[in-house]
Amino acid sequence: MKLQVKFSLYNAITKIAIILVLGSIILFSLDRLAYNQLDNRLIKKKNKILEHLSNNEIDSLLNKEQSFTDYNILKEEFIVLTDIADNQSDSTAKVFTEKREIEGDIEVYRILNYKFSYQKNWYNLEIGETMTALQSIKNSIRFYMLVVLVAALLITLVADFTFSNFLLKPFYLIIDKKINLVNDPSHYDYQNIPTSTNDFKILDNSINSLMRKINTLFALEKQFIANVSHELLTPISILSTRFENMLNTPDIPVEHENKIYASLKTLNRLKLIINSLLLISKVENNQYLKTEEISLKQEITDIYEDLEDRIADKNISYRADLGKDFHFTGNKALIHTLLINIINNAIKYNVDGGSITISDKTESEKYTLIISDTGTGMSTELAENAFDRFKRGNSEENGFGLGLAIVHSIAKFHKIKVDIKSEEHKGTSISLIF
After folding, report:
1. Which structural domains are found in the chain, ordered by start?
2. What digits encode the pLDDT tens for the residues 245-285?
3. What DSSP designation does 322 have?
4. pTM value?
5. Would the CA dihedral through 23, 27, 32, 37 be positive or negative?
6. Contact at 8 Å (CB) between 422 and 393?
7. Phi then psi for 143, rounded to 5 degrees?
8. Beta bridge partners of residue 356, listed in sequence order
9. Chain segment 48-70, per-residue pLDDT in tens
10. Distance of alpha carbon 199 from alpha carbon 132, whole angstroms
């Protein structure tokens, strides 16, 4: 999971948790808030009535000519004024909830009760509002609270995602340009990625420093390969020539001749190992060009002509059935080496009278070349380690375990996937997926 996604998820989870806590607090205190709001409305109405109080108003209310306000049809509010004894003292407004019957209908009202003196007479004023109004207030508060919280959540999430994207942009540039897109240390770009974050600057400089060391080691390795090519192969060639000259010496004893012949054979094996390792190293160090147009069908035809005698010697049935002449750009010599190694193994580890089948298929825009044989096959463990150097699929045969290692290096160089399926005493199938 990307760092940016983790940041966004963390911010989302924490904000949702905060909103849930705040929402719960508001919901628990909603009744108190609604009651306070309703009580304040009643007090304001009481103050307004007292402010515009007159004898006519008092007479009208006492005679119950206006028991209700303008909303008396819905019976949501009422105003009742009664004359009380004059021996009262000043009182504060009291608010309570009570059932009242108004014109035959019983409703639950929030009632403000207030005793006051007007022109030396005492009166009791009651102003009531149904709890329907309270529920309306609570619903309004819930709705606006939900809208505000959701809007706040969305705004903060978008803001956090945008800011984290802006903040981490240099980090992803460093990963892409300095690591993912680097195939050759010699072509590495040491220019720093613009950023104001000190942590990313340290990361960028550390990668640059590491790549300088790798580039130095890479150059040394190339130089070493060139030196090995000259320093090892030249003495081997000289020794081979000397042994061959010794074999041409007249009257050489047979036992000496056998020892010289065995030494020549060992030198040739050593030369083959060195050449194979040099090939793998050069391929892995990208010292070859991929600029040639290659026809797989033509390459397989050429390889069959080269190996036709060996195939005939083991009475192997050979069939190349390619439905498509697949072309691609690469290094022709290396692809030839890759294919000849696979087909050579199919011959080498096959049984007398066995078969080799070369076929192809195209699935999901991927071309696959399949080379199958009916040879001795490999165990599951050996098949898993088939690409490791100096490990062979069949230890009873002569070899150095470098054939499939070469195949793997060349395939990786051309971005070809190699898949091996093998079963002991039944054969091996190698798929090259382009």
Report:
1. 232-284 (no CATH), 292-433 (3.30.565.10)
2. 888 888 888 888 888 888 888 888 888 888 887 888 788 77
3. -
4. 0.53
5. positive
6. yes
7. -60, -50
8. 318, 373
9. 888 888 888 788 777 764 444 44
10. 60
Among residues 34, 35, 103, the alpha carbon closest in space to that of 74 is found at 103
Residues 418, 408: Cα–Cα separation, whole Å? 7
pLDDT confidence tier of residue 347, bands split at 50, 70 and 90:
very high
What's the residue count for the chain?
A: 434
The closest alpha carbon to 326, from 358, 361, 350, 355, belongs to 361
At position 11, the amino acid (one-letter code) is N
Of the candidates 372, 380, 379, 330, the residue with the CA atom closest to the CA atom of residue 355: 372
- Quickly list H helices, 232-325: 233-247, 254-284, 296-313
Rounded Cα–Cα distance for residues 426 and 180 (Å): 41
DSSP per-residue letters across 79-134? EEEEE--S-------EEEEEEEEETTEEEEEEEEEEEEEETTEEEEEEEEEEHHHH
In DSSP notation, 140-206 reads HHHHHHHHHHHHHHHHHHHHHHHHHHHHHHHHHHHHIIIIIT-S-GGG---PPPP-S-HHHHHHHHH
Residues 6+ apart with CB under 8 A from 299: 332, 335, 336, 339
- Cα separation of 422 and 376, whole Å? 9
What residues contact 424, with CB distance under 8 A and at least 6 apart?
Answer: 376, 377, 378, 379
Run of H or E including 417: strand 417-423
pLDDT band with cut points at 50, 70 and 90 for residue 71: very low
With 60 as the cut, is the pLDDT of residue 188 above it? Answer: yes
CB atoms within 10 A of CB 26: 16
Q: What are the backbone angles phi and psi of residue 81, rounded to the nearest 5°? A: -120, 125
